[in-house]
Amino acid sequence: MTFISLECENILSLYEKNLYGEKKDKRIKNWLNLLSELPELNNVKNDLISGVNIFGKCSQSEEEVIDSLLLEFLPWRKGPFTVNSTLIDSEWRSNLKWDRFLDLKLDLRNKTILDVGSGNGYYAFRMLGQQAGAILCLEPNLTHYSQFLAINHFLKTNKVRMLPERIEDLNLRETHFDLVFSMGLLYHQRDPSMHVRSLKRAMKKKGKLIIETIIAPSNYGNYLQPKGPYASMPNVYYVHTDKGFRELIENENLSVIDSSEETKTTFREQRQTRWMPFKSYESAVLKDDHDLTVENFPAPKRKFYILEGRN
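^ that's the sequence the OP posted. Answer follows.
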């Protein structure tokens, strides 16, 4: 059965025998070794509704191998994942963002979905739990891509596929999706309009675009422009206000049909863990005032928008 389109199948086939294609990275050999050493689970069952939870039969020694090998793929930014007794306690409790999306009650059943900048596939697996038809993930970060391969080693679904590519480089011409997701990407774009246009080109005529992003306070006009790090994040170019975001998408002939409340990032949602032992949100905001970043900008508040094309 064709995965979304013949065009997708042809691109994915380039990665079937060579998981990393022509990508160059000195860590690839190690990742391939780790993937080959992951034990198999028997009689696998999963729960993708309450989380990404995978259960199957294996020996106690294999349980220990699973835990130690999965830890080798750190840093785990998105999650959590459960594989038998192993809990991958990721930096982000991505289930909280997913719950905010579910509050918008967008129907994913049988939909074809493009998840741009998908990370390790956590949200795509949750989409599958909402009965999505097929999800194509694009993630150029090879660590995140490797984590996806590791999780799908156990889950073994062919309804979620990932390419280690950027949407701008992939240049899909014939494939269009019911739903296109861009979460946590907009503020990293040197040209936000170009990013929105690339997402829009991937939509079906009556499709929907879901953008989740950081929203700056209204007193910044259309956007906050850090001209340096923002919340300890490099490569942040424009943090739009709600007004600025709406003007941006209106210029691309899109309309907001629904949106979530703005939600402040907290230490409960993003923090350092065993699975992501480097600096996290605690280094992004002032110790004595969590409403300000270490650069003295307003601390991040995140928001979902659901968009569709204007007639």
